[in-house]
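ugh finaly. both done.
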Amino acid sequence: MIREYVEQDVYTALQMRLKFLFEEFDNIYLSFSGGKDSGALLNLLLDFRRKYYPKKRIGVFHQDFEAQYTLTTEYVERTFERIKDEVEPYWVCLPMATRTALSSYEMYWYPWDETKKDSWVRPMPKKEYVINLNNNPITTYRYRMHQEDLAKQFGRWYRKSHGEKKTVCLLGMRADESLQRYSGFVNKKNGYKGECWISRQFKDVWCASPLYDWSTEDIWHANAVFGYDYNHLYDLYYMAGLKISQMRVASPFNDYSKEALNLYRVIDPEIWVKLVGRVQGANFASIYGKTKAMGYRNITLPKGHTWHSYTLFLLDTLPARLRNNYAKKFNTSIEFWHKTGGGLDEETIRELEEHGYKIQRNGVSNYTLNKKSRIIFLEDIPDDTDDIKSTKDIPSWKRMCYCILKNDHICRFMGFGMTREQQRRIDIIRKKYKSIEEMEYGV
């Protein structure tokens, strides 16, 4: 592929992308989480619409996860009240299966579950645009469906309810947020009309990320220059000394947020009291979130165990559903490294050979940027690979054990991606990408 570079700032590029979207799609709606990226995109989108397409009606979809900071709820409500007369507002508070990484016994919890109404973290919002079980118009919704499916099926319903015409959902996703997002944009082969930032979900339903090449600094610069309102939770995060990667408005129970769970005690004590009673393990994770108890830092192998035997021991202690979930992923990983192989750097290959690992090349990985050699293991999966210093992205029973100890139900630590069915093969290990955590935060 020939790469073309142009002299253009990200704001100008965004204006061109928005023009493209307004010309190509009949229906446009934006997914608004209450975070900095979707908030900035919403404001930029409305400015563009007011200037160039004032008669165009757009939708704003907010998927409410019940458990969140009060400042986030206030920002969402403030935003909807400000724009409700010029957009189609959809504040969705429906029961859905949402991942939790706090418990060894539960993979999901269910925001807005009617059977747990007495323990809801906060009351149901009372606005005319709030959608709940009592007034739900979304015909594609199924009770307690997975959160990812709810977001996708809203797009299908939006198309159906707007004349069955070509529809696009705007997301505030950016490439520098994570390696997974970066590689998703870079390696996308079938974008809409060649655009890597637009992907198809269903027939005539697409998702677009027009801010994909913006940096965190770009987001805050836009807020400052244009005087946009934003979620002031970020001010508290900044004063608390959090890294950029820790400044999230997502559910406090997922594996991205559990390290900062204890901040609820200080920032929002009233909500914290409700969190403890809502999901098993919330209090434990807040106290031990960065300790050995939650699978962080150096874990000591119990006397008399190998990492293999310890993993099997831990599996035996789990409920059948979780045990089968881990076993399926571990078996998939083992089969992958025996039959297909992952793309590894030449330095890592030499290091493996020097330490006596029985490996073999198996072609090249087309999913890696520089066509790395695929490597398969000819003998049993190693117990640990602590002697390999160039990378941690090689298989071992120690990595599997860590997944259990970290309550990493989707096994992201082993390279698996976020999937509902949890049957997708292990993601190919790509070139290391400099972590966003190393960036300095500036407004």
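ok and the 2nd:
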Amino acid sequence: MTKPTDPFEAALAALLGPLAQAMVAHGVTIGTATEALKNALLHAALATSETTINDSRASLMTGIHRKDIKRLRNLDDGSMLRRSSNATASVISHWATDPEFQDDEGEPLTLRRNENSAAPSFDSLVRKARIDMAPGTVLRALLDQEVVTELADGSYKLLTHAFLPKAGSDAQVAAYHATLSAHLAASTHNLLSDEDTGRFFDRAVRYSHLSEASVNALNATASKKAQELLQDINALARDMQKIDVDKDENGKFVLGAYILPTLPGSKED
């Protein structure tokens, strides 16, 4: 008698498909992938225990050898790259939405690095966004990503209201990490929660048997409305942060949006 397939095993296989595509594209081999999985399993085991667990207990929970457990406990988690990505996104957000850095038409001001006058500057923007990084470092990242350009008079102009890293860049990898990990964390919370535990909002609309014209029209409408929602929530969160910033609080909020249009006849069809 054939053993029924565990629904979670089927879900895991489906989740690993797109991830494997990204891994192959970035030259990640099975050895590197295994190392990352070991690290993730260890951190999951540590997070589920209310008390500190020793290497033997962690090995029993995960199946990872104790010598690997000891080594993995001391690995750097790459948080610096994520911090840099978050910093640039936050600066763009403030520059694009904070009235202090907008002109009378609501467009982002061009900014000089650091004016002696009371006029807004890039350095004051970084301080306003409460970024714990040197303004010059943040500016260089924005210039490298071609999100900001330097004008002939030495001032800087914001070219986009959203942080869209260059394809294949470290910043794009950090954004991929931040976006997918947050969505997966929300979905995993819902998967593991019981009836007494609140669930996070996680919904999707799916339609098939659509023409190319319909897919394109839905993509355009959804992109426009999703961008409007993100901008509205971004402005609201920024105003709330101004009020909360001096309180000893560490609450976090993430809102994401994704759209997957698949045209008839494509490989994903």
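summary for the 2nd one i guess: The chain is about 55% helix and 0% strand.
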